[in-house]
Inverse folding.
């Protein structure tokens, strides 16, 4: 799916986003996977001091984590990388 469409879907329905799509969206905003410990995927951003620890919930992204990402994007003015 197109990254802009993923972003629109995340904004419209954060509780209905596949975990794989959520990870794609995080990478599109410049987050880098630091490590995986069990189900926990730890991401960091190279230009801002933000780490995110995300986990799947039966193949879906957790709505509060999607909302957390959207708030970070808005607060720091992050742009989608094409």
């Amino acid at each position: 799916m197109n990254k802009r469409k993923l972003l629109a879907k995340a904004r419209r329905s954060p509780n209905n986003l596949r975990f794989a799509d959520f990870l794609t969206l995080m990478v599109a905003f410049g987050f880098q996977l630091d490590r995986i410990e069990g189900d926990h995927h730890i991401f960091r951003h190279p230009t801002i001091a933000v780490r995110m620890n995300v986990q799947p919930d039966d193949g879906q992204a957790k709505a509060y984590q999607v909302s957390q990402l959207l708030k970070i994007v808005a607060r720091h003015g992050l742009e989608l990388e094409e």
About this structure: Residues 3-76 form a domain with the Metal Transport, Frataxin; Chain A fold (CATH 3.30.920.30).
